[in-house]
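User: Write out your own:

AI:
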Amino acid sequence: MRVKCLLLIATVSLLTLGLSSTQAAEVKNPYPLGDIGLPDDYVQTMRSYQEILDRTEAIVDMPDAFDWRTKGVVSPAKDQGGCGSCWAFASTGALESKIAMRGWPLMDLSEQQQVSCNTTMGGCSGGSMSALRFWENIGPLTEACAPYQAANTACSSLNGCDYLLQNTTGYYTVNANSVPDVQASLRNDGPTYFRFTVYSDFMTFWSSGSPGQVYQNSGGSILGGHAILIIGWDNAKSAWLCKNSWGENAGPNGDGTFWMAYSGHYHSLSFGMANVTLVNHPPVVWTGWYDRDDASGVGDFETLVDLTGVCANPVAIDCSTVGNVDWTDTGETVTCDPAIGLTCVNANQGDGYCLDYKVRFACPGTWTAWLNRDYPGGVGDFETLVNFTGICANPIAVDAKTSTDIYWTETDETLTCRPDYGLSCVNADQDDLYCLNYNVRFACP
């Protein structure tokens, strides 16, 4: 049987989760570590419902039901295999959604980056919601370049992959037992990391439950901690909609998702939740790699003043050896600065000689003017690339808002918004059978 991401909890860990010695004696399943429980600063970093709403852009009115999939910003469920990496899947899924919420394509990001490179976590032996902070100072990698291995591979094995210029900020935790607090965070800041304690009856529910059925713990033996991506709710069901990481077509709903009751569980499920937002980087385009110099003579100098075809004010730089070893992993004394480029002086190295380096730069893209060619009369509102003239051939991002400046992800309408397409809103797909009027703009290289 395929091993799931469950936490084999020792008695000391059970005490930190508030579980009794009787429950501790019930632990028998030899599953690998998964979610290791609430971070030590969980209470200190908690933000309340009112604090979430005390922002000028916050959404105050919460619908009775909401599903982020209707916005096209939730990737399909994945499969973590036999590695206790549910924490990596939950945090990576959250970042995928937040990037898409900003108008970028829905990306397939690398969970392996978290497993291999996040040294504050335990790889296949488990992690926590604090993993959301990993991308504060480093960008994510794509799944295509750093595919999932379900194993603790070395971070250096991912050298040569391109970091995306996307960073998290504003990490905070949520009182996950407060329905208003969870809904406010989920609706305003998007799908995110949610953890709960798994009992044996959940495994029965997962394998035998029917579509739309709500999981409510009725007893059973404790198996451990698990992390999922929370993506919506339904007040009529009194339940959260969750995306699991146990297979794309698995679970009671047949699509890797399941419903979990707000409350009323026989055992405490020790709910926990954290969320983040994205740093508002401008759209960027990476140059090709430059390698104009080598380490002969004084050293290796890949500097802006010596390179041609680079924009005047790069916003980021990527430096590595010609053998694709990131400059931070070489052990050499090197300057790598977007305002300068790369410099490596032979005399500053322990062996008196620099490696051969290459560099590339991230140049800012340009936003078009706001465009509004259509009105939602008739079938709907269609602000699509095929209907515009003068737009670049391959936009790298799209931005959309209503004519009254409400961002498209905050409207509760069902629509499509992609940089390779534009925006479309069909009246018949809306609850009131009528779309709002949208403006769009595109980011061009």
